[in-house]
Specification:
With 139 residues, the protein is mainly alpha-helical. Helices cover 71% and strands 0% of the residues.
């Protein structure tokens, strides 16, 4: 994501990169012919280069923070939706289903791949159970 944002900055980023290259080229040139006065100039160029690097880094960090804020917002919304769905399902579940679910949670068996939670009709409690839990007699 960050590359897209940096490329989207357009000319400003390109100018900064070109300026940074120019500063380092001038720094190299001054180092080869260093004198007392050029040391001060070199220090100034180094400071300018470091400021430029800092501004690039701060831009990238700000952009990443914005991306992360958006992801956090989406995750909070999704969490709220799932909590509402969970509460609805809890309210619609029968006490038998809740007991079966609690038993699965305690034994550590996954609810998605295990036996499904089923509604148990009041007239025939064995009818709603999966075949592996029925009494073994068939009608």
């Amino acid at each position: 994501m960050r590359e897209k944002g940096l490329a989207g900055a357009g000319g400003a980023q390109g100018r900064d990169a070109a300026t940074l290259k120019l500063l380092f080229w001038e720094l190299e040139k001054h180092l080869k012919s260093s004198s007392g006065a050029s040391v001060v100039a070199i220090d100034n160029k180094i400071e300018q280069a470091m400021d430029l690097v800092k501004s690039h880094l701060m831009y990238a960090v700000r952009e990443e923070v914005e991306v992360l804020k958006e992801q956090i917002k989406e995750l909070i919304e999704r969490n709220t939706q799932l909590e509402q769905e969970n509460n609805l399902l809890k309210n619609l579940a029968s006490p038998e289903q809740m007991a079966q679910f609690q038993a699965q949670v305690q034994t550590g068996s996954p609810t998605g791949s295990g036996q499904p939670l089923v509604a148990v009709p009041a007239g025939n409690p064995q009818q709603g159970l999966p075949s592996s839990q029925s009494s073994g007699t068939s009608a």
